[in-house]
Design brief:
Radius of gyration: 16 Å
Strand content: 5-15%
Mean pLDDT: 89
Strand order of the largest sheet: 1-3-2
Order of helices and strands: HHEHHEEHH
Number of helices: 6
């Protein structure tokens, strides 16, 4: 119960901060971050769906919003026209860069209020052992 409530509270608080300061949802931010860390700044839409644990229709709606904002665009696969990509635009990278500093600061503040630095390190290590949790990009946008 504590895990579910803690997760819900964290997501709610971080989502509100991103929306207030940058007009992004936490899912928007995660997609921009995944694209920024992907080879060529692009991922297949099906891979994004799996990475952010949304249904294909949920990813389509999310990407439609990011595309309307100019943060992503559609790309096609030359060898298989059935495959479409989400591609990070320059505007999307700039949005991610501007959001990353305050988002990481909000995370550090939130965790710093409740845990020592050693506890944060232990928590990160423990959470990294969970299925699907390890190996992802950090919250910081990679250097262009």
């Amino acid at each position: 119960m504590r895990l579910l409530r803690g997760h819900a509270a964290l997501v709610r608080d971080l989502n509100a901060q991103l929306m207030r300061d940058h007009g992004l949802t936490i899912n928007d931010y995660e997609v921009l971050l995944l694209l920024a860390n992907a080879d060529g700044g692009r991922l297949r839409r099906t891979d994004l769906s799996q990475s952010i644990q949304l249904t294909p229709s949920g990813v389509t709606r999310l990407l439609d919003g990011l595309q309307n904002a100019g943060f992503v665009c559609k790309g096609v696969c030359e060898s298989d026209l059935r495959v479409t990509y989400a591609v990070l635009t320059d505007a999307g990278r700039a949005k991610l860069d501007s959001a990353s500093c305050s988002h990481v600061a909000a995370i550090e503040e939130l965790f710093g209020e409740h845990f020592t630095p050693e506890e944060v390190g232990s928590l990160a290590e423990l959470l990294g052992r969970l299925p699907g949790a390890g190996g992802g990009p950090s919250c910081h946008a990679p250097a262009a």
